[in-house]
């Protein structure tokens, strides 16, 4: 036992040389460098924006068929192209819509555009031949995606094509190439063709793609802006030639005119018998302002959506025009048909396409009982007229105009336009006895804050129709909101209390009137 204790430990069978130790150290450092690089790549990819809201301040939701995207809010609504169909600015194009192509002209190389269309059939927009690879979008939608560099006309039409992996270094270049990315969604028969120098913007837009579920399996959902319609099977999208529909169709945006082309090479303006077309357009567009005044009767649509409806018979053709207007969706639908029952059936399915984006840094209006619609100004109150944004209103003579500081009224006042808040360093307390009434754009930033509170159709003594609702400020003061979609105006009135001040506000609002709005012929 003592002999074993005194024995020396055995010599190792193999002792590495100093050179081998250096080589092993270098190999270990290289392995660690590879691991660190892989972690950085993963973190970098996770930091890439997965939604267009990371790239633009105010995104806008647009849709085609059953697919919706988010694009920058300041993009042109539809087809900012020249007479030959070349893009001339940041724009969205929904459907092919018969855009004419010719040899003269060229696109603006600094512009970005997104074209949404069918993947197959006559309404499929042309797309470059790219290698499509399977991809799963953040919404869970399975699709195929690929990209290529647009040939440069200045270099004789040359250009190197490549897929998305080749685009990883685009953002590192001083002058990134104009690149077209194709997103194909076979399950929805929809494709998106995006062309831009800004690869991150395109990635954010495409990653925002999501499915719009159809309410009924017997119909197809088609959407524009925030509104959607469920169409009978067999209807087409933008089936317009020579300015007239050639089949039962929904037209996404007012795209009729010289940019439509005939199918068979001859242009005949004659409208086929029995055809029904429904045009969806923004309320604040020229088309919306033309037809919106027809809608005066309150109507409840699919999923409880509140709107206004109106009808007019065209004496020359005998057809009926039916208008449905939904202020909260900023959209109207105009149907021309001899089959009013069919038009009413389709228009009644108008609903919200996708959830509305949450308002930022603004109080959420809480609906409270609306004031009585037959309120009048208290007896003996002397008034003066104020005019702003097509509205005329009678306010008490003692009320000031634009008496605001830091967004708070200094006394009873009417504001012509949203009062500035003065910035973060501006602090003023609101007097306890100050009421305020602000007139501004319905489809501006101030209108976006309050228009959700107005959801009850109302007609004022002057005959002006709008939507009425109530809310509360953070301090608990009563707020009355009146919106007028047809003239893009909103009135937000905050009373100093729920008693006599609210009674005076109710009376002031009944005096609102606008220039006579004549319905289109």
Outline the structure in words.
This protein has 521 residues and is an alpha+beta fold. The chain has 7 helices and 32 strands. The protein has helices at 2-6, 18-47, 199-207, 286-291, 340-347, 445-450, 500-509; strands spanning 59-64, 67-72, 91-94, 113-118, 133-136, 142-149, 179-185, 190-196, 210-211, 219-224, 227-232, 236-237, 240-241, 244-245, 249-252, 277-282, 297-300, 306-313, 320-326, 331-337, 351-352, 383-388, 391-396, 400-401, 404-405, 408-409, 413-416, 436-440, 456-459, 465-472, 478-484, 489-494. Strands 12-15-16-20-19-18-17 form a 7-stranded mixed beta sheet. Strands 24-27-28-32-31-30-29 form a 7-stranded mixed beta sheet. It has a 6-stranded mixed beta sheet with strand order 3-4-8-7-6-5, covered by helices on one side. Strand 19 (320-326) and strand 20 (331-337) form a beta hairpin. The longest helix has 30 residues, at 18-47. It is globular, with a radius of gyration of 31 Å. Residues 41-52, 255-264, 356-375 and 517-521 have low confidence and may be disordered.
